[in-house]
Amino acid sequence: MAIILVDEDLCTQCGICSVVCPMSIIDPAADENIFPVVRDEMACMCIACGHCEITCPTQAITLNVRPNEKEECTVGAGTLSTDDLGYYLKKRRSVRHFTKDPVTKEDILQVLDIVRYAPSGSNGQPVQWTIVHDPEDVITVAALTIEWMKTLLSTDHPMAGYVPGLIQAWEHGHDTICRDAPHLLVAHVPEASPIAAVDGIIALSHFDIAAKAFGIGTCWAGFVSMAVLSYEPLRRELGIPVGRTCAFVMMFGHPKYKTYGLPRRNPAQVTWR
Ligand SMILES: Cc1cc2nc3c(=O)[nH]c(=O)nc-3n(C[C@H](O)[C@H](O)[C@H](O)COP(=O)(O)O)c2cc1C
């Protein structure tokens, strides 16, 4: 099976597909009768990134990997001014107070549909999601995280000095673990991969950013994320499959409060070499 399909009527033999292929496996047109080709023995190196297809000025190339699933995207769609983009990103904040109004599964899936396009090492797309949608289950996750914290008391774990206050707050009815968020998003990735955990963080960052446009507020759930790595009951509760590990967990829901303006942040620290 050819890994790229070339429409010979459209191909101008410009060679761009060959130049942009990150794996350098596309032989450019050799003469007017020999069009760009991935030789069979090179096809296994294709990472299906689709750059040959989307960079072709005449749309002569189809990547022959699920070819019918190509999403149409009009020229200019998604163009933002630098100001709009800058303020959109600068205005992203962690949300720690949520309304009781649930985020619909449809909205969550729409955001995750955007997140599918996040970068991943060798285009491996290793991230899978567990969504804790029932607020009661989020409370269970927070309670298990507190149980994990109790196992750290009187140990030399770096969190040991920090957990008594969190446990005490929980026992007084304050959820500083999941912030009474209605939902949790868990990114899990293959355990054995040296790079997939980074893919998980990138995908969650895209969720963090995209969710805002849907009126969804987010906050990285650091305590839960630490606990799930070593506390089996929590790993079981979150249903992380065998052979996979949690990259990180994010709380989300509809924000209770609006924000006005921007907080102060340190200037960028740059060294020019
Ligand atoms: C890796 C990571 C873990 C975090 N864990 C928590 C957490 O467990 N609970 C929490 O309330 N906020 C958590 N946060 C949110 C940070 O406190 C927040 O990003 C920071 O204070 C800056 O505020 P901003 O996100 O509104 O700009 C975490 C953020 C990151 C990046």
Tell me about this structure.
The protein has 273 residues and is α+β, with helices and mostly antiparallel strands. The chain folds into two domains: 4-69, 2-Layer Sandwich (Alpha-Beta Plaits), CATH 3.30.70.20; 85-253, NADH Oxidase. It has helices at 16-20, 51-55, 82-90, 105-115, 135-152, 163-171, 196-213, 222-230, 232-237, and strands at 4-6, 61-63, 128-132, 183-190, 217-220, 244-253. A four-stranded antiparallel beta sheet has the order 3-4-6-5, with helices on both faces. The radius of gyration is 23 Å and the shape is elongated. The N and C termini lie far apart (48 Å). 28% of the residues are buried. The site of flavin mononucleotide has 9 residues, from strand 5 and helix 8.
